[in-house]
Design a protein that fits this description.
The complex is a heterodimer of chains A (236) and B (209). Chain A has helices at residues 9-19, 27-44, 174-187, 194-214, 219-227; strands at residues 6-8, 50-54, 61-63, 68-78, 81-84, 86-87, 96-98, 101-103, 130-135, 140-145, 152-158, 168-170. Chain A is of the alpha+beta class and 236 residues long. Chain A folds into 2 domains: 6-47 and 174-227; 50-158, no CATH class. In chain A, helix 3 packs antiparallel against helix 4 (194-214). The radius of gyration of chain A is 24 Å and the shape is extended. Chain B has 2 domains: 3-53 and 170-193, no CATH class; 59-161, no CATH class. In chain B, 30% of the residues lie in helices and 20% in strands. Chain B is built from 5 helices and 8 strands; from the N terminus they run ααβββββααβββα. In chain B, the strands form 2 sheets. Chain B has a 5-stranded mixed beta sheet with strand order 2-3-7-6-5, with no helix packed on it. In chain B, strand 2 (67-68) and strand 3 (75-78) form a beta hairpin. In chain B, helix 2 packs across helix 5. The longest helix of chain B has 22 residues, at 28-49. The radius of gyration of chain B is 22 Å and the shape is elongated. The N and C termini of chain B lie far apart (44 Å). Classes of the chains: A alpha+beta (236), B alpha+beta (209). At the A-B interface, helix 2 of A face helix 4 of B.
């Protein structure tokens, strides 16, 4: 049987600790570094988009998943794809508190954007039924537009860190993650000689480059992207 | 070597070498105390030199209960026996394992680390239980557990402890570092006879032909 492509973050941590001959009293140090490294990898090196279906609350808001670093797509399912909403950072983010409950007060302009424009030949820009803005500080997506009764689909980049269960990472990223952990574990230490730090950094960069190369689009995917941009005529 | 035999062996060697008239000078109690001092010192020196090499000098204690402190809500265990105070995070508590299975891991930390870890992201998602070794208000030796909750609570644990010589039973096997048995025995005997250790330094003395 082949080994799994998913390994736990702990396996990566223990691999790094094993190489450095660290004992278990250092576990939490490496655990913390690994969490920071994983988040960095998710933002800059790893592919993979997470999917979630979120129920909107009475104030037309969605709570961001706890592991969400950045939103890629927000929309509603339509013919097998996601009908995306349009970002509009001018949407009002505030709500009014009445009787201890957060509500939207129409007298203060806290209403849904209703777009009555009709798209015509001379209309500039697109018109959508739904608009959104994201308040990352409040971990909230604010949606404005027509009433939505079904769950909203979001695609997002995850931190990869699971608060509820075991955190898994791709096995193909083991060496890149491990070399990053070793690099960051030593780079600020004063008792590690500069030469060793340079070697760690070199290895870290090499492993990142290898991992990125491994994740490049295949030749077929690149051909499809290219062909999608050119017009083809019927072959007779 | 069995603890009782070790004490008897030292007693026998003392009798052979002692030339004085005070025959009651070396009672088993006095010998045991002296051997204990030497043994504890040897373990401490070994721990400083090679802290990962203490496994063979540990004794397993099973079915140690985990309780919850009503004042702090923290989980803890009272150690069943005195431990050797080794200068690292584990002290004399070298390993803790669940009584059955090994799904939960215990990681030793210092109280200083505890403050840092409690305020970092790792505290929110750690699946491991951290522990510190110390004393409670009744001056009992305890292990405090961090990140143990009602969800991952384990009622019984087993511990590998480094214990002082005095805490061993008379029939317990006492391990001395390999090849150093004689050095250890002679050290105890010489100390009890008042023989000063050999001066092996030349102190820059002139080399004579």
């Amino acid at each position: 049987m082949d080994s799994s492509e998913q390994i736990t973050l702990d396996e990566v941590i223990y691999s790094a600790m094993n190489i450095l001959e660290e004992d278990e009293t250092k576990y939490f140090k490496y655990f913390q570094i690994s969490l920071e490294v994983l988040r960095d990898f998710k933002m800059h090196h790893m592919k993979g988009i997470n999917h979630a279906e979120l129920e909107m609350d009475s104030r037309n808001r969605l709570s961001l998943p706890s592991d969400c670093i950045r939103i890629v797509t927000i929309g509603l399912p339509y013919l097998g794809r996601v009908w995306t909403f349009t970002i509009d950072d001018e949407l009002l983010r505030n709500t009014t508190i009445k009787g201890g409950i957060e509500i939207r007060d129409a007298t203060k302009g806290e209403i849904d954007v209703v777009n009555d424009d009709i798209t015509g030949y001379d209309t500039a820009g697109g018109v959508n039924d739904w608009y959104y803005t994201i308040d990352y500080n409040a971990r909230t997506i604010i949606i404005s537009g027509k009433t939505i009764s079904e769950p909203v689909t979001i695609h997002y980049i995850s931190s990869g860190i699971s608060l509820d269960s075991v955190t898994y990472v791709p096995a193909s990223a083991l060496l890149a993650l491990r070399s990053a952990i070793i690099f960051y574990a030593n780079v600020y230490k004063t008792d590690v000689i500069g030469d060793q730090k340079t070697r760690n950094e070199k290895l870290y960069k090499e492993e990142i480059a290898k991992y990125q190369h491994f994740n490049m689009p295949s030749l077929t995917q690149i051909r499809d992207i290219y062909l999608s941009t050119v017009k083809q005529s019927v072959k007779r | 070597m069995i603890k009782k035999q070790l004490i008897e062996l030292v007693g026998k060697r003392l009798t052979e070498r002692y030339t004085g008239s005070d025959k009651n000078r070396f009672t088993p109690g006095v010998i045991s105390l002296t051997v204990g001092r030497m043994y504890n010192q040897m373990i401490t020196e070994l721990a400083l030199k090679s802290p990962n090499g203490l496994d063979i000098y540990t004794k397993l204690f099973k079915n140690i209960e985990v309780a919850q402190d009503t004042d702090t809500s923290l989980y803890y265990s009272i150690l069943p026996v005195d431990i050797s105070p080794i200068i690292d995070a584990k002290s004399g508590v070298r390993n803790i394992l669940p009584m059955t299975g090994d799904l939960v891991s215990f990681v030793p930390i210092t109280r200083g680390q505890r403050t840092i870890i409690s305020n970092s992201l790792s505290s929110k998602i750690s699946k491991k239980i951290a522990y510190t070794v110390g004393k409670n208000s009744n001056n009992e030796l305890i292990v405090d557990y961090l990140f143990m909750t009602s969800d991952n609570f384990i009622s019984l644990v087993r511990m590998y402890l480094v214990i002082p010589f005095e805490a061993y039973e008379g029939t317990d096997d006492i391990h001395l570092p390999g090849g150093q048995d004689m050095k250890f025995l002679e050290g105890v005997v010489n100390y009890m006879l008042g023989t000063p250790p050999k001066d092996l330094k030349n102190n820059n003395a002139t080399i004579k032909d």
